[in-house]
Specification:
Layout: H1 2-13, H2 34-42, H3 44-75, H4 79-85, H5 92-102, H6 106-109, H7 111-114, H8 116-130, H9 133-149, H10 159-162, H11 177-186, H12 204-230
């Protein structure tokens, strides 16, 4: 029945006149009616021939989707997003086991061995971020700072200082506020001559917000640790 409705709709849509459903004997319930039965009976041959073409096109469409999906699975399985990408807290051993046994792409299957240095760096970053809430905030602040501003002229030559892909990045080296302020002044990113307000880059408002949040997170972490110790 569903195929018949689709076929009739296509014929009507391609004509110069669009008829209401009532002229076919149909209503919103799409139940068979004497008028609709008569229409199908009088056009049985056209409907049957049209359905052959419709089914053929449908099968071709499905086959194309299956082929496309299979090709993508050879590059990276759909399971990767669940078991690796969205499973960032999984132990490294579990991720490497998944890559070796579940992926079809040879590059991904051999990544635990061929990309060991890269994975070492990745997990060392994760270890740092998970070590303390303040570490996570500090890392995120400087990582986003670089990602959003690395194209600015004032950031030229400062990749190793800010880019979290560099071990020398400030993202891995927390500082007390006076130290950071002094360093930013030295780098021309604070108290810039001729600049006022937010154009000072590491201005007082930004520093106040960053360190206030750091103190808040540190206080919560200490309170949580105290509660756990007393339990």
């Amino acid at each position: 029945m569903r195929d018949c409705f689709v076929f009739v709709w296509c014929v009507v849509r391609d004509s110069s006149y669009t008829m209401p459903m009532s002229e076919f004997g149909m209503d919103r319930s799409f139940r068979m009616s004497p008028r609709l039965n008569e229409l199908f009976s009088n056009n049985r041959a056209k409907i049957d021939s049209g359905l052959v073409v419709l089914h053929q096109h449908t099968q071709e469409y499905r086959a194309a989707l299956v082929k496309e999906r299979g090709e993508k699975e050879q590059v990276m399985s759909s399971g990767f997003w669940l078991y690796v990408f969205d499973n960032y807290k999984a132990p490294r051993e579990a991720i490497e086991q998944y890559l070796r046994t579940r992926e079809k792409n040879e590059i991904l299957r051999t990544l635990p061995q061929a990309g060991r240095a890269g994975l070492d760096f990745l997990y060392s970053r994760l270890s740092w971020v998970y070590s303390h809430p303040c570490s996570a905030l500090w890392w995120l602040f400087f990582d986003d700072l670089w990602e959003q501003n690395n194209g600015l002229k004032v950031m030229e030559g400062k990749r190793e200082m800010f880019d979290s892909r560099c071990s020398s990045s400030l993202a891995y080296h927390p500082m007390k506020r006076p130290e950071l302020e002094a360093k930013m002044e030295e780098e021309g990113l604070r108290n810039v001559k001729g600049c006022r307000g937010t154009k000072k880059y590491f201005n007082d408002r930004l520093m106040d917000t960053l360190y206030a949040r750091m103190e808040e997170l540190d206080a919560k972490a200490k309170a949580k640790a105290s509660t756990v110790a007393q339990a």
